[in-house]
Amino acid sequence: MTARSLQLFRMTTPIIETERLGKRYGRTTALTDCTLRIPAGRVVGLVGPNGAGKSTLLGLTCGLIAPSAGSIAVLGNRPGAGAAQLARVGFVAQDAPVYSGLSVADHLRLGARLNPRWDMRLAQGRVERLGLDPAQKAGRLSGGQRAQLALTVAAAKRAELLVLDEPVASLDPLARTAFLRDLREFVAELGVSVVLSSHLLGDLERVCDHLVVLAASRVQLAGDVSDLLATHYRFAAPRDLPPGADVIHADDSGREPVAIVRSAAPLPGAEHADLEDLGLAYMTRALISPEARRSPEGRHLPEAER
Ligand SMILES: Nc1ncnc2c1ncn2[C@@H]1O[C@H](COP(=O)(O)OP(=O)(O)OP(=O)(O)O)[C@@H](O)[C@H]1O
């Protein structure tokens, strides 16, 4: 394959493509009937309540666990299929795993030894820019610095896809902001695709251009953020909703009644929903309504609305 056709292949091959993917652990269903097609070049936010199946989907993506049903292709191949495929995907597990007894510089040396496409210039440049002391033991770094080191090691692998499982969970708001800004910058610089899970919808809005909402082990919503925001509205008066409105979730019990409505056409009197509204609406809908949970409509935008 020529360099040009390889580039074209990468641009047109979905980063993740699943068909009725499922995973069971004994009697526990972690993921059911998951059908997704995530285009290349996206920064994907994966959200869902505890136990929704986020880590399971990320584990399947990296080939750390095998499906119980259906299929999954990552960058056009079976996840974890040999050393070449493993090198294309960089994974940072929850809690920014680093070796506490090794120094920052040791992490880079180890990375160079283990990864055929290791980019030492990139790694050293990031360490310098972040102000990390190469001689410092990783165990002595702050939570934010450890997260940055883990991200540096994953990025310097020069993987095509980075999979980050709750990378900002243990960080304070300042460290979180710095981490996400930095992520956005180097994603633009390296042209890498990213999938990151988080409980913090507000944070994802800053960095993601594609959203997947998981709840009750199923995909409730998936699509490009710009399409989702353009087709969802927030009504402050749920009782006055137009007849036939496609209500995702309405709550008029509290002091701030709200309804989130899906519509391809503009809705007079309503403002566009933000990503936080959307995530919460689809998650709540799935958790309180078994019917909605099973409905395929809840999972994807109709083709015409994309
Ligand atoms: N190794 C395992 N053995 C048995 N059950 C498991 C295992 N891993 C996950 N599960 C179960 O599968 C379901 C999905 O778990 P998963 O960790 O994927 O959810 P999650 O969305 O990542 O949750 P959290 O936000 O709490 O990290 C849960 O019910 C969990 O208890």
UniProtKB/TrEMBL annotation:
<keyword id="KW-0067">ATP-binding</keyword>
<protein>
    <submittedName>
        <fullName>ABC transporter ATP-binding protein</fullName>
    </submittedName>
</protein>
<feature type="domain" description="ABC transporter">
    <location>
        <begin position="16"/>
        <end position="241"/>
    </location>
</feature>
<keyword id="KW-0547">Nucleotide-binding</keyword>
<dbReference type="InterPro" id="IPR003439">
    <property type="entry name" value="ABC_transporter-like_ATP-bd"/>
</dbReference>
<dbReference type="GO" id="GO:0005524">
    <property type="term" value="F:ATP binding"/>
</dbReference>
<dbReference type="GO" id="GO:0016887">
    <property type="term" value="F:ATP hydrolysis activity"/>
</dbReference>
<keyword id="KW-0813">Transport</keyword>
<dbReference type="Pfam" id="PF00005">
    <property type="entry name" value="ABC_tran"/>
</dbReference>
<comment type="similarity">
    <text>Belongs to the ABC transporter superfamily.</text>
</comment>
<dbReference type="InterPro" id="IPR003593">
    <property type="entry name" value="AAA+_ATPase"/>
</dbReference>
<dbReference type="InterPro" id="IPR027417">
    <property type="entry name" value="P-loop_NTPase"/>
</dbReference>
